[in-house]
Amino acid sequence: QVQLVESGGGLVQPGGSLRLSCAASGNIFSITRMGWYRQAPGKERELVATITSGGSENYKESVKGRFTISRDNAKNTVYLQMNSLKPEDTAVYYCNGEVHYFSDYAAQEIEYDYWGQGTQVTVSS
Known about the structure:
The protein is mostly beta strands. 0% of the residues lie in helices and 62% in strands. It is built from no helices and eleven strands. It is elongated and about 50 Å long.
């Protein structure tokens, strides 16, 4: 009933920029919290940035000043603008949403944590 679709990843040189987007679809009432996480090979998934429905932002310390998270509530979409990219930013980036949606089976509102499929970001010369 709910799907998160990511886009915008790719290969860039150090110092370059990328803009990731994640659009949620389905019988959605609201998404209270949306965010981006990343996972490099052999490492655990880590938080990059989150934003609440009220616009409160939270960032991993190493990306502060370089990354900016934003959302469009009307489109159920979250963005991550990444500037001054470094090789250590290389990872698969995953979109996450705490989604309130309507369940056709239960015929009522349900809350669940959803993840996107991931998009590869590679920063290399």
